[in-house]
Write a structure and sequence with these properties.
The complex is a heterodimer. By secondary structure, chain A is mainly alpha-helical. Chain A is 72% helix and 0% strand. Classes of the chains: A mainly alpha, B alpha/beta.
Chain lengths: 325, 437
């Protein structure tokens, strides 16, 4: 017993003797630095982000400064593409269309989505089934629902025109996709139909995190249903609303499939969105540089949308107990 | 012997089982003999991959696969066929040409080889051989196929777009056949609409139907996007005349043409809503299967002649090209030559039921054009077609202008009353000037 203790002492002593205590170098410090280690753990994720997000984005921006065609690298032309687009009535029209499409569709999607969420949050018979049913438009592949809407809006075979005609309400078919404003409202309606479930179900999830005791307390204090919504539900829901609406605006702004299947941007470019025009010019028309410029021109709008929702809706200090600034 | 089997195939029609039993071994024997005598000997161990536009009629593709099988059995060269929607062949080919990898053979749309003429295998020997053997190439095919003195692609076929119209309604309106002059066509459209049997042509972004008819209308009135030196000359009194013609025509048409895509007029015609339109033969083929009364009561006609006094039609051409990066150029040439030999081409084009038209004069004799007289107008589309870009070059610029719907939008802008003639032309001119700079 005693002997073995002694032996370890000797062993320890000799090891300490060999390596005298010295000031740790900065490398030694770095080796045990948790942040340094963390950097290495983050590298794979960072590399993936660089490769699949930053690089394509940077490449797109770079292409927008060149006159590249499909299959051929272009030369740097500076802002030429943007100058050209500034005077291109089709492009300006597509910006207008995109803003209209996004604003109208997002506002209605939010209103209808919130209404549905509140409704589904109540005690309803067959609640589970109803919630599943609401999701259906979201589950159907976009292309399929676009084709369905294309038939619904068809100039000759529209079920709506047919029904109204059978009822004797109209004489001729409604020109859903051939008239400029009809086409805009029709595509917006299709987008709303498709986007509402996402908003509704996400807001419903948010609603369920609101503690019932708050409502109970408010009810005891004599709050009306509107007051309960205005002063309990809405404030507690704002963070979720911010996230949902950011996503909803981004999805709507970059919508492509619905428009491409239903109108290809027609009639006379009245429903061309920036995304569809970019595709038409870059891939079908082959002018990669110009198409990239159109896509790049979408970025400021998207950033603005994100900023508004982030800073406008999320920075509520009172939610964490502070004053509202 | 070959004549007999070809006839047999005609009679077999779509009954492919019976047809293959008859022609299979004969075709193979012939293919083997051909491979031994052909000027192009495939490299040892060659395999080819080919990207083609996706077929419109199943029977065409089946006949094509059979033809390729015979080639493989005769030469030992395995061929992989990939199919893409015809609009997607061009971007893929461009990327392949730029990166130097991809399918050996591309079979795409009209100006495809002119996007990268230096990357195409010289096909002059193949084109000369076929031209000499089969009565020469039609003019437009030469323009599409050649870059300078060199053939950079072999024109395989056209797909025609002509007038489709209903017979009885036209007779009732006082026209025993479709008018052959543009003025008369306006009267015809007016009369047809007045009696409740209107027609119409697409003014939406319909790549095929929209582009073919607006280019015809522009050219028929002497308008041109560019001159022979690719200088933009769209802003002309002739263009205004063409726009006015189209606006009047559209006012005598069924409502909704501005929303039409390539399929809209097909279904409206088959549903008896539309009584005249421009289209490939697809309406007729579909009607024979599903609406026999429509098929019996319809016919095809050339586009009417306009004030310029000559034919100004535009049809789609499908050239096949081999990329210079291929390891087996001789195999590519052999395959393309093999496709266009009478014993392969005749049954193949027959199986396409009139969708596709040859570019070699000798194939005028193919029975598909005369067996049903309603097919006959489509026999001549290759001869009647002008090339993309009109007077100008057939290259990338013409392709971009068509793909970007510049002329379609110009007509739609004016015909729907969104812009006056000056404004509609100015928008098109600005875009064209950028493309042709």
């Amino acid at each position: 017993m005693q002997g073995s203790n002694l032996m370890t002492d000797v062993a320890l002593k000799s090891r300490l003797d060999k390596r005298p205590i010295q000031e740790p170098t900065s490398w030694d410090r770095l080796k045990v630095n948790k942040n340094w280690l963390g950097l290495w753990f983050m590298l794979p994720a960072g590399a993936i982000l660089m490769l699949f997000l930053a690089y394509p984005l940077g490449l797109g921006v770079w292409l927008s400064f060149t006159d590249a065609k499909i299959g051929r690298a272009g030369e740097f032309v500076g802002l030429e593409n943007y100058e050209w687009l500034g005077g291109d009535s089709t492009f300006l029209l597509s910006v207008f269309n995109t803003l209209l499409y996004t604003t109208v569709a997002s506002v209605i999607k939010f209103a209808v989505g919130l209404y549905l969420a509140l409704l589904l949050n109540e005690r309803l018979p067959f609640k589970a089934i109803l919630r599943a049913v609401v999701l259906i438009p979201f589950i159907v592949p976009t292309v399929l629902s676009a084709i369905a809407f294309w038939w619904i809006y068809d100039a000759q075979f529209s079920i709506i025109s047919w029904s109204l005609k059978q009822m004797g309400l109209i004489e001729t078919n409604i020109d859903f996709l051939g008239d400029v404003w009809n086409a805009r409202w029709s595509t917006i309606f299709a987008n709303i139909w498709r986007g509402v479930p996402f908003v509704a179900i996400t807001l419903l999830a948010g609603l369920q995190t609101v503690s019932p005791s708050l409502y109970e307390a408010a009810t005891i204090d004599g709050a009306t249903p509107w007051q309960r919504f205005r002063f309990i539900t809405y404030p507690l829901l704002t963070p979720i609303i911010a996230v949902v609406m950011t996503f909803s605006v981004l999805f709507t702004f970059t919508d492509f499939q619905l428009i491409w299947v239903m109108t290809r941007g027609g009639p006379v470019n009245a429903t061309h969105l920036m995304a569809t025009l970019s595709y038409q010019r870059a891939i079908i028309g082959g002018s990669l540089g110009e198409g990239a410029a159109i896509s790049t021109a979408m970025i400021p709008f998207l950033l603005a949308a994100i900023m508004v929702s982030w800073f406008g809706l999320q920075r509520r200090k009172w939610q964490q107990g502070g004053d509202n600034d | 012997m070959t004549d007999f089997t070809r006839r047999a195939l005609v009679q077999g029609g779509t009954a492919l089982g019976a047809a293959s039993a008859l022609t299979g071994p004969a075709l193979l024997d012939w293919a083997k003999a051909w491979a031994q005598n052909a000027a192009w000997k495939p490299e040892k161990g060659a395999t080819l991959s080919m990207l083609r536009w996706k077929y419109f009629v199943q029977s065409e593709d089946e006949a094509f696969v059979k033809l390729i099988d015979a080639f493989t059995k005769a030469t030992g060269v395995k061929v992989n066929i990939a199919r893409e929607s015809y609009e997607d062949v061009q971007p893929k080919a461009s990327v392949a040409a730029n990166t130097g990898t991809g399918p050996d053979i591309f079979w795409g749309l009209y100006s495809l080889p002119h996007l990268f003429p230096q990357k195409c295998v010289d096909m002059t020997d193949v084109a000369d051989y076929l031209g000499k053997k089969y009565g020469g190439w039609v003019d437009s095919a030469v323009k599409y196929g050649k870059s300078g003195n060199k053939w950079i692609a072999v024109p395989i076929c056209y797909s025609g777009a002509l007038i489709n119209y209903r017979l009885e309604a036209s007779k009732k309106a006082g026209f025993s056949k479709f008018p052959d002059k543009t003025d008369a066509m306006l009267e015809y459209a007016k009369a047809m609409k007045a009696q409740g049997t209107p027609g119409g042509m697409a003014l939406g972004h319909a790549s095929g139907d929209g582009n073919t008819w607006v280019h015809w209308a522009l050219w028929a009135h002497g308008g041109q996007t560019v001159d022979a030196k690719d200088k933009v000359i769209i802003n002309s009194p002739e263009t205004v005349k063409a726009l006015e013609f189209a606006k009047t025509l559209n006012s005598h048409s069924i409502a909704g043409t501005a929303s039409w895509n390539d399929g809209s007029n097909n279904k409206a015609f088959l549903a008896k809503e539309v009584h005249w339109t421009n289209n490939g033969i697809s309406i007729y083929v579909a009607a024979q299967n599903s609406a026999k009364d429509v098929a019996a009561d319809m016919d095809h006609a050339y586009f009417p002649i306009g004030p310029v006094g000559k034919v100004t039609e535009l049809h789609l051409m499908y050239p096949a090209l081999a990329m210079t990066y291929t390891k087996y150029p001789q195999a590519c040439k052999a395959l393309i030559a093999f496709m266009l030999e009478a014993d392969n081409f005749n049954p193949w084009i027959q199986s396409a039921k009139g969708y596709l038209t040859h570019c070699l004069n000798a194939y005028d004799k193919n029975p598909v054009w005369t067996a049903d007289p309603k097919n006959t107008p489509y026999r001549d589309v290759a001869k009647r077609s002008l090339t993309a870009g009109g007077l100008g070059s057939v290259g990338e610029k013409a392709a971009t202008a068509i793909a970007d719907f510049i002329v379609v939008d110009m007509f739609a802008n004016y015909a729907t009353g969104r812009e006056d003639a000056k404004g509609a032309i100015a928008i098109a001119e600005r875009q064209l000037k950028r493309i042709y700079r």
